[in-house]
Give the backbone structure.
Amino acid sequence: MKTCIYPGSFDPITMGHLDIITRGSEMFDRVIVCVLTNTQKKPSFSLEKRLEMIRKSVEHIENVEVDSYQGLLVDYAKTKNAKIILRGLRAVSDFENEFAMAAMNRSLSDEVETVFLMTRTEYSFLSSSMVREVAKLGGDISSLVPKKILGEMDTLK
Ligand code: PNS
């Protein structure tokens, strides 16, 4: 059974995330979407709200689970017996940070492998922070986040 962990802040989950989760679910037996702490970011949505939004967005995909963890990603992966970390790669600007993160995770644990999927072109410039900004200023984000969580975006206004 091949399990992969799809980690992130998901503040909020976007169509770009959902695209990677969907494609990952076709490649792996089990995908665990895990909300972790990015110490460089201060989330707008509470952990509980982010988990709820992810759960709603992926409920139609059978082999996807949703979880959260306070600590190192590699430690979480161990608890799940997972050896693969899945990440999406957007435009070139993502590369340096993702490269450093994969290298750090590899140095923390020799057992984990990071696998990258290139984001679909239409989502390659999409980020949670941009979604939050556009939502706050009253712009149309209906094609940028899963339909089921669109209502939650009003709370940002
Ligand atoms: O969605 P993000 O903010 O790009 O996700 C980054 C995240 C949460 C996956 C990363 O910050 C993370 O792995 N945090 C957990 C702590 C950890 O393991 N840090 C070492 C690797 S950089």
